[in-house]
Amino acid sequence: HALIGELRKAIEDGGLEMHYQPKVDVRVGRVVGLEALIRWRHDGVLVSPASFIPLAEECGLIVPLGQFVLRQVCADLARLVGAQVAVPVSINLAGQQFDDPALAADIAMTLASYDLPSHLLEVEITEGTLIEDVAHSLENLRALSVLGIRTSIDDFGTGYSSLSYLKKFPIDVLKIDQSFVRDMLTDSSDAAIISAIISLASSLRMDLVAEGVEQQAQADRLLAMGCAIMQGYLYSRPLPFEEMLTLLRRET
Ligand code: G
Ligand code: G
Ligand code: MN
Ligand code: NA
């Protein structure tokens, strides 16, 4: 596969870049966090990770790719701290990264090398990854939690987690999957699922982020239902670091 060789090269020669999408607390209209999303500039075109992350997972490149992400995000975070506009940044972890026994130590070392407090880094793990091996996930989550790293369940509602697992996992945030947000105004089942996720988060004392918010009417409805932190094109697309820095500076 020619693309595998080119991806390996991109990981080694800086062909990958991180973009950042804000999470907004709509009660106060402020950016309260960012999600880091990887981009590959290949022949001048940005390639979506939806196509190359699965490839990286298949050919053993996901761990080196994840190490690039961790270092780049910490380097960017250090610049946000320097500019006095730092907010927590979340990174996405694929299953093999989350299962890597060296993950917590890698994160601790990288944070320390940039002199960053652990609360500025968060991780997003999909529900599917978490329930693959519950005992192992619990151990990994505890290792991150002991470090002070906040953990989110990404795409929540799509992976068939049972409530009993949720109770055991030290998880800080549920991210409501964008598939529910998309049709919530017209599909009463989607609205009902969102409502159930919101009460679940409240009972388990977890924070909430709604993903894929594109319309003001969706944001209004989500806020009325009890979810105040939103992420989506209504607020901003994922932006290159320099543009995100400008946006954060303008806010303060
Ligand atoms: O950014 P975009 O919406 O195109 O992302 C597509 C998918 O790629 C999402 O599922 C997202 O979680 C995943 N993704 C984006 N960046 C990263 C990353 O740095 N690491 C991993 N493992 N997945 C990522
Ligand atoms: O799987 P994960 O949730 O990590 O990835 C989020 C994906 O959703 C990224 O590919 C990101 O670019 C995309 N995204 C972010 N905001 C919106 C939005 O408002 N609408 C849509 N359709 N996609 C979005
Ligand atoms: Mn995510
Ligand atoms: Na998601």
Describe this entry's structure for a reader:
The chain has 252 residues and is of the alpha/beta class. It has a single domain, classed as EAL domain (TIM Barrel, Alpha-Beta Barrel). Helix content is 50%, strand content 22%. The chain has twelve helices and ten strands. It has helices at 2-13, 49-58, 62-82, 95-99, 103-113, 127-132, 134-147, 163-168, 178-182, 188-203, 216-225, 241-251; strands spanning 16-25, 30-42, 45-47, 89-93, 121-126, 150-156, 173-176, 207-210, 229-230, 239-240. Strands 1, 2, 3, 4, 5, 6, 7, 8, 9 and 10 form a ten-stranded mixed sheet that branches. The longest helix has 21 residues, at 62-82. The model has no long low-confidence stretch (mean pLDDT 95). It binds guanosine-5'-monophosphate (G) (2 copies), manganese (II) ion (MN) and sodium ion. Residues 154-155, 175, 177, 211 line the site of sodium ion.
Give a brief outline of the structure.
This is Response regulator receiver modulated diguanylate cyclase/phosphodiesterase with PAS/PAC sensor(S). The chain is of the alpha/beta class and 252 residues long.
Chain-wise SSE layout:
Layout: H1 2-13, E1 16-25, E2 30-42, E3 45-47, H2 49-58, H3 62-82, E4 89-93, H4 95-99, H5 103-113, E5 121-126, H6 127-132, H7 134-147, E6 150-156, H8 163-168, E7 173-176, H9 178-182, H10 188-203, E8 207-210, H11 216-225, E9 229-230, E10 239-240, H12 241-251
Parallel strand pairs: 2-4, 4-5, 5-6, 6-7, 7-8
Antiparallel strand pairs: 1-2, 1-9, 1-10, 2-3
Helix pairs in contact: 3-5
